[in-house]
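Still learning. Any example?
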Amino acid sequence: MKRSPIHVLVVDDEELARRNLTLLLDGDPDIGTVTECQSGQEAVEAITKSKPDLVFLDVQMPECGGFDVLELVGNRIPVIIFVTAYDDYALRAFEAGALDYLLKPFDDTRFALALGRAKQRLAHSAQSANAAAERLVIKSRGQVIFLKVTDIDWIEAAGYYACLHVGGETHIIRRTLSDLEHDLEEQGFVRIHRSTIVNLERVAGLVLQAEGEYQVVLTSKVQLPLSRRFRKHLQERLGARSTGD
């Protein structure tokens, strides 16, 4: 599986320090976007808005330092590497969940080691997330069911719950449809209506209704309404699968 580009945020009140980091990141094939912030407050806004994968965070900045940033954003940063000219904060940094602590001035080798650790952490997190998405835990009538995602035919919204249709059975899970759509998209599921998600492996075709709207026909013969809003995306996903992409 191809690794997704790593989105990086560089936070430092010194322009030269930011430039040094962006130059070291430039050209790395695994790095996607690199955004710079010159203050802790800017960093809080950027982290909340863009949700970066990796943040290089200066400890000492006017008004809002690195530890203040962490307190304000909570656990929104998957990987944190502190960058500072002072070694006094190392213990506190690791207690705050930092992966590494770069002490200025650092050389290319030390930076490469820190970045390599960050890549390994992100890759491991992605693998764990994919593994977790292979099964859903259903709690019902005093029992726990571990349901394989690939067994699900389609899912419909029921307020803050979702109904999972598996063959002739229906299981209810306390998850919103949006949450399930996000988690299951890579598993071959796609939304076809504001209240419906289908397993692409179960889609047999489309049927045009008299009023000009389409319905999705599943291999089980179940027919589900297809919203115009999601029709193009469904056709693209079906086309991609038919061409082997």
